[in-house]
Amino acid sequence: MARGISLSLPLLYLALLCTSNVFNIAAAQGTEADCKPRANLPEVGECIVESADDPRVDDSPAILATFQRCSSNSVIRFLPTNYTVHTPISLIGLQKVKVLFYGNFLLPDSISEVQSAINTTQNPPSTYATPWIYIQGSDVSIEGSTQIEYGRFYGFGEQWWHSGTRTLRPQLATFNVTNGFLSNLKVIKPIAWGWNLPGQNIRVENHFVDAKPDNATRDDTQSFPFNTYYDQDKGPRPDNTNQTSTNIRTFTFKNIVGSLGTNWTDGSCISNPCWNYVPGLDEPKAVILDLLGHITSGH
Ligand SMILES: *[C@@H]1O[C@H](CO)[C@@H](O)[C@H](O)[C@H]1NC(C)=O
Ligand SMILES: *[C@@H]1O[C@H](CO)[C@@H](O)[C@H](O)[C@H]1NC(C)=O
Ligand SMILES: *[C@@H]1O[C@H](CO)[C@@H](O)[C@H](O)[C@H]1NC(C)=O
Ligand SMILES: *[C@@H]1O[C@H](CO)[C@@H](O)[C@H](O)[C@H]1NC(C)=O
Ligand SMILES: *[C@@H]1O[C@H](CO)[C@@H](O)[C@H](O)[C@H]1NC(C)=O
Ligand SMILES: *[C@@H]1O[C@H](CO)[C@@H](O)[C@H](O)[C@H]1NC(C)=O
User: Fold this and answer.
1) Which residues form the signal peptide (predicted)?
2) Section 207-220 average pLDDT
3) Model's pTM, two decimal places?
4) Where in the chain is the domain with CATH 2.160.20.10?
């Protein structure tokens, strides 16, 4: 059980070792061969999501239609190209679906377009925000491309922080799945929250987040935060009287890798002290794992 987990850093790169498949939705057995480049050609029977290959054309209806057609016992493949996802989508009732996410999703790069779409979507909201992508089902895996330029979710989020826009921010995705697997997904300049995992028995591997401010400096703290803990917009940090404000069970962090620029800073502080203030720690902090000592173990 952990009391609180705080992550605050401009660039968090979680690199986990390549391992075999967690569970098999399709017939393939996980082997070391999974780590090697594959031909990645579509196989007979796969459901291919077509892209218009035109940034002005919203691919959301085509994505929805494919998931509705192939919602069980299927392999859904995204091709190595950009998909314009300008409408929030709900992919629900999935059963035994393996998604080969070899393309990219592009959210609108217009703040007002995002706000207006998230204001009207029927996607089930999370505690803090409504997800742009809602996924619900059982035995669902989403395997991103092993190539760095694919398997990406482009949020165009940095501008929200430059302009201090905090209304109608979407969360990227909710993965409300029993027996789920996410791998090789890359979150690029998210607007705010990334993946929410309210489901059960979910494994995440090789998750990459680029929330690096491209032009912020130490002295100009207009920058791009990455954090989880509590929402300062909702008021002061709540009393953690029972030492259980975050309760995580059977959770393993492995091989966390990150990098920080020189003179990195954190523009997420809109309260004083900052949301991530921990008495007795040096400032600034990159990563805080605030765990209850007697029930955690370190390696
Ligand atoms: C996809 O979109 C991103 C972000 O706009 C861009 O950097 C990239 O070049 C695009 N890739 C393709 C294949 O069009
Ligand atoms: C959001 O929806 C509410 C209620 O329909 C409306 O009053 C408000 O103007 C909308 N805001 C935006 C930014 O679309
Ligand atoms: C997750 O899906 C279940 C149905 O399987 C639903 O009852 C629950 O409300 C959903 N939770 C969230 C956070 O969306
Ligand atoms: C970064 O660029 C944005 C957009 O041009 C601007 O609003 C912001 O002030 C810039 N920040 C810094 C630190 O230069
Ligand atoms: C703390 O635990 C007590 C006893 O179990 C419970 O009544 C109370 O609601 C808890 N407080 C919070 C903030 O969770
Ligand atoms: C980092 O900040 C210090 C103190 O403000 C400054 O002296 C130094 O030049 C900065 N270094 C870089 C690389 O910006």
Assistant:
1) 1-28
2) 73
3) 0.73
4) 41-211
Distance 276 CA to ligand 4 centre (A): 24
End-to-end CA distance of the chain: 17
31 or 296, which is more confident?
296
Atom of ligand 3 nearest to the CA of 176: 1
H helix count then E strand count, the chain: 3, 16
Mean pLDDT of the chain: 78
Best probe residue, ligand 1, of 82, 148, 188 (max atoms within 8 Å of C-beta)? 82
Higher pLDDT, 290 or 155: 155
Nearest-atom index, ligand 3, CA of 124: 14
pLDDT for res 153? 98
Q: Kind of pairing, strands 152-154 and 287-291?
A: unpaired
